[in-house]
Amino acid sequence: MPESQYHLQSKDSLVVLVLLALVVGVLSGFVGAVFRITLQRADQLRDSLIAWAHGGSFAGFFFIVGLSAAAALIAAWLARRFSPHASGSGIPHVEAVLHGQVPPAPYRLVPIKFVGGILAIGSGLALGREGPTVQMGSSIAHFVGQVFRRDWPDCRVLIAAGAGAGLATAFNAPIAGAIFVLEELVQKFEHRIAIAALAASATAIAVARTLLPDAPDFIVAPLSYGDPVTRPLFFVLGGVIGLLAVTYNSTLLATVAAAERLRRLPVEARAGLIGAAVGTLGWFVPTLIGGGDAITQRTLANTETLTLVPVAFLVRFLLGPVSYAASTPGGLFAPLLTVGAQSGLLFGAACHFVFPSVDIQPEAFAVVGMAAFFTGVVRTPLTGIVLVTEMTASVTMLLPMLGACCVAMLVPTLMRNAPIYDSLRERTLRSERGRQGEIGRKQTLRARH
Predict the structure, then answer these.
(1) Which of 117, 219, 321, 433 supports an S-S bond with 252, CB 3.0-4.6 Å?
(2) How sure is the predictor about 94, in pLDDT bands with cuts at 50, 70 and 90?
(3) Torsion region of 88: left, alpha or beta (phi above 0 gives left; psi -120 to 50 gives alpha)
(4) 278 in the same domain as 198
(5) For the chain, what is the domain count?
(6) Residue 201 shares a structural domain with residue 257
(7) Model-level pTM?
(8) Residues 86 and 187 both lie in one domain
């Protein structure tokens, strides 16, 4: 084939790919927006039911606990029975697909992830909406690629673009969605994927904003650039958060491993017990359960009683790993941002107490803490910085974020602590090998009989 003809076909293929990425963005943006709206309604319903049940004393208590347990149990059952890949975040599975380590999940994952995510997060589990939207976006993209009979290299590009569109819709952050695809999902810069991810994220946000408010997820008061003497404090914050990130990763993996060692207890029973525990917490402190957006907003506004923030921080630090161990659909990002904001606010308040003569805004440390903790856990600093900037519409903290994220990434790297999605992807691959082995054994037994 002449070189000029090859280049012409390559350009035509790229144009078709971009057009399909626009379609993927439209579909992913619509599904993601409906998912967000439904989650908001589920959160409102949960809060209303808890308030109503408090009038029923013990009967009301058991109603809330039973309802949370049932919702978590059903979510885990749906994933196990109909789409095992739908359990957990889903992002490690998408990464494995893009690296050619596992095949794409069947298309029934989308409704299972949607319904299961609503039940799990709506029941009060500390899980994020981004995991479901990322995995649903990638599955939708694979379906589009199959419908238009694209080969695997093109389908891979579309899957990556759909995942980015899902993240963009989850947090109203189109640039972060595209960056996340390159920095985390494929972990290298590929021109075709970059172009398709930008196209899909752009159309996803355009569609989502017709259904959702066209505003940043969090409202942050104007922040000053701060006194130059405060700059070193952000590096110290990065070091502290780097240590917290290592602890969080270890806690999450240990909690999941402990849950899996309870082999005699079905996954649905484990999810039901965790749901009951979360329902009990919700009965006494309903403001501490759920995805965490409301907690993050209160933290960024610094409206919480400062003496209660350490307790809330400890609860959320443990609640995220415990909720993830339930094996229900749900992500990690939103809970990470909550813990990051709380840790940043506590650090900023401590600095303000130690250096009363220095102009220190604890809220500024909360914003930086979100990006730093995200970076320490996931090891994607660009995604963390851009994501928090888009979600808060605040650019004054970009320079402090750079310093804090640098140290927050340095500390876990020096301690040889693996990024959380690398660890979870290894678990996904082991589960997939075990599942395939079990299928093979069953087929062998059937053949013998």
Answers:
(1) 321
(2) very high
(3) left
(4) no
(5) 2
(6) no
(7) 0.92
(8) yes
